[in-house]
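hi!! sorry for the late reply, been swamped w classes. u asked for the two structures so here they r. pasted raw, havent cleaned anything up. first the sequence of the first protein and right below it the C-alpha cells
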Amino acid sequence: MRANPTTSLNPLIANLTLFQTAYTQYAINRTGPFTSPGGATYGFQQFSRDELLGLNATEHLGNRTEQAHIEYYYEAAYYPTFPYPGYPPKGNESYISLTAGLLAPVSKGNVTLQSNSVADALVINPNYFEAESDQRIAVYAFKKLRKLLISPAMFRWGIGPNNGEVVPGINVQSDEEILNYIRSTEIPVWHASGTCVMLPREKEVVVDPRLKVPGLKGLRVVDASIFPFVPDQHTQGSVYMVAEKATDMIKEDWGF
C-alpha cells in the first residue's frame, strides 16, 4: 500500500544520503531506523476443523490440524522486492506491505536428476499451490489482509484511493484473479524444508532416524531438509533443535 513516508523504509532505499545518515546513526548510537529490521511484526492463525471444512480445505484434515496455518507479515517497504507489473515501485512514493504465508502447505514439490552428471543442475519443482486446499487458504488469507487494510489501525497510514492499495489493485476481485495474482508473486519466504526427509530405513530414504545417509560412511544431514513437513513457525528454532539432537547422537556413536 502507498503509505506515509514516516512509516516506511522506502525513503532510505531511494536516497543514498538518508541511508548513509541512518547507517551512521545506528553504527554510533544504535538508534534510528536501522534498529528495526523493517518487518518486525508477525501474527499467526490456526483454523479449527470446522473452519477448514468451511473453507473446503479438506486436504488439511489429516495431520495438519493441530498447528498454525497462516502467518501474516508486515513489511515497512514494497514487498516482495521484485516489481509487480501492475504497479512497480516509484522513487517518489513510500510503501508498506501486508503479506501472508502458508505454514501448513499440503502441496509437495520434488527434486530430481536431469542426468547422471554431477555437473548438471538438479531439476527443482516447488509445485506451489498444486493442492486445492492450499489455493483456498491462500485466497482466504489475501481477503483477510484486505480487511486489515481498511481497519482503523491501518487506514490512517494509507495514502490515496482504495485505502492506499496499489498492488495488486482494487480491480483484482474474483477468487480466480486473486489466485492468479498470488501465483505471480509467490516466494518461499526462506522456509524451504523436506528435500531429504527423514524416514525409517526400511523405506527408500535419503536420511535415516540417526540422520545418516544410508550407503555412505561419515555423512549426516542436519538441517531443515530432514523435516517431514514445513513447521508452523520460523525454521531457525527447529533447526537448532535438530542440531542439538544430532550432537547427542554423534557423541553417542563415538562414546563421548
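now the second protein. again sequence first, C-alpha cells right under
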Amino acid sequence: MAQAAAKIVLIGSGRMGRIRARAIFANPRLQLEGIVDPNIEQAKPLSELYRTHHFETLSEAISSSSSSSSLDGIVISTPTPSHESLITEAAKNNISSIFVEKPVDETADKVSSLFQLCNDQKVKLCCGYQRRFDSSYQSLYHQINSGAIGTPLTASIFFGDHPVPSREFLLQGGGNIITDCSAHDVDFIRWALKDEVVSVYAVGTSSDDELREKNIIDNATMLLTFSRGTNVTLSLSRGANYGYDQRCEVFGTKGIVSVKNMAENATELANEDGLHRPKWMHSFPQRFAAAFEQEMDAFADTLLSETHWPIEEKDCIAVQRICDAALLSCETSRVIHLDDMP
C-alpha cells in the first residue's frame, strides 16, 4: 500500500511562500492543505492556483484540520519577527514538525528558547539553509571532506544580490545586509569545514552619499577566523546589477575547489566581435530552484520516515551568534571574539 502524503499548511504567500507552494504542490509525498495569510488579495490567488484552502490565521487552519484530520506539519515562510508566535502556536497544538525559513528568530537567545519549547513539546523544528541542499555546494562539501584539497587554509565567498533593491526599499531600512545576506554562506562554510568560528571582523560601506547620510550599509565584508586556523572572507553586496552572483572558493594545501556562477542557459556565441555569453541567473528563485525542491523533499522524509533533519539547534544558534558578532564588529570597528558574545 502506498504511503499517505503528509498533510501540511503553508504560512505566508510572499516571495518565499510562492516558492514553497510550488515545491510542496509538486512533491507527491506532501499534501498542501491550505495557505495561511491575512493578506487575502495576495494569498487567495495562490491558494486557487494550487487548488487548496485559504486561511487568514494559523488558528483557523488548525481548527479546520482537526474537524477532518490533523496536520502533520507546517511551513513558515513569513518575516522573521512573526516566527516566534507561529512556532509557539504550532508547537502548543502538537503539530509534529515545523519548517521555518532562516533565521529561526532575531537573536541567539530567542532561537534557543524556541528550540527548547519544541523539544519540550516533542516537536521537530527544522530550519532551512538551502545551500546544504544544492548539488554544487554539496559537491564542494564532499571534495573538502574527502581530503581532495588537503587542509583548508583560506576561503573566499561572494554574495552579490540581484535584482538590485529599489532605493525606497533601502531608504526605509530594507533589512541589514549582514543579517539578511550572510546567513546561508555562514552556515555552509561552518558545515563544510566542520569547524567553529572563533572571531569575526566586519566592515560596511554605503555606495552613495544618500545612503551614507542615512547610515544604510549596502556592501559589507566579513572576516571569519576558525579554530583550526582557516580564514574566510565573505563579501556581500546589494548591487550586482549584472545578475545573481554567488561564488565560493576554498584553497588548501593540496588544491583548490570552487562553486562557480550559473548562467541562464549554456549557449555561447563566438564571432568577430568576441565571445558572447548569457547573463548569470536572475535571482535566488532561479539559482536555487532545485535546492528548494530538495529541501521540501527532505522535510517529507522528516515527516514520513522520522529522518533526522540535518540542520540542528547548535547550527542555528552558531550562525546567529556569528551574525550578531559581525553586526557588533561593524558598529564598533573591532574584532569580536565569539567567547565574549552572550
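hope this helps!! also noticed smth abt the second:
The longest helix spans residues 313-332.
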